[in-house]
Amino acid sequence: MMDPLRVKDRILENISLSVKKLQSYFAACEDETPAIRNHDRVLQRLCRAWLYLALSESSLESYLRLFQENQALLQKYYFKNALVCSDDHLALFLTLVSGLEFIRFDLELVIPQGGSPTPCIPCCLVLTDSQLLTCHQDCQTSFFRSLGAAQLCDITSVRLQADQQYCVVEFAGDRAKFLPPWVLYFSGCGERDRLLRVLETAWRDIYQVSDAAMEKRCSEALALMSSGWQRADSLARGRAQREPWC
Description:
With about 250 residues, the chain is an alpha+beta fold. Helix content is about 45%, strand content about 15%. It has seven helices and eight strands; from the N terminus they run αβααααβββββββαα. The protein has helices spanning about 5-25, 45-55, 60-70, 70-75, 85-95, 190-205, 210-240; strands spanning about 35, 105, 125, 130-135, 145-150, 155-160, 165-170, 180-185. The strands form three sheets. A three-stranded antiparallel sheet has the order 3-4-5, with no helix packed on it. Strands 6-7-8 form a three-stranded antiparallel sheet, covered by helices on one side. A two-stranded parallel ribbon has the order 1-2. Helix 3 packs antiparallel against helix 5 (about 85-95). The longest helix has about 30 residues, at about 210-240. The chain is elongated. The model has no long low-confidence stretch (mean pLDDT about 80).
């Protein structure tokens, strides 16, 4: 088994060679700078998908700077031997990729059938009085862009597992424009439950329904049905006891 330190050194050596090739390629371009595209579009690893997304949105350097500023968070989600958990290797990685945001990347992502799941995009949820929005913040410009929007009244169900930090938001099938389910992953079950609580509050405000009012209406409806069943049962017994010629 190769020493973890040697593995990280080899990774940085390969990155250095790739960056040098890019610099040589663009130095030879006299006219308009072309975009870098990928020939191998089928991804087998989600880490490569993350790099593709970061390069395509010109934010890899910004992400790495955030890694430098949040080492405690990295220790929580990465193995201790990971490249980004080493201060020296991360600093060198950042130096190597510095300036790549000026190169235009147009990298396509294709996930094979039955392979890895579609890569996730980090986002935040914004809840208004009528809509649920997903937004993504560009690390370089701090600009928020909308990834999707849904009307709260179109949400039909939220499926989840009690001990899993994700949920699936499903939408009405008869809406004007079909909207596939949203699979939302959270940093913990507490964040997921927080979303469920604010959704419940929003639904109550929209439909003007409270638990007490709902329980009262259900109890009244049950009492009416029970009374109707009793009258129907009494009539049926009375008819059964009559003489045939009555």
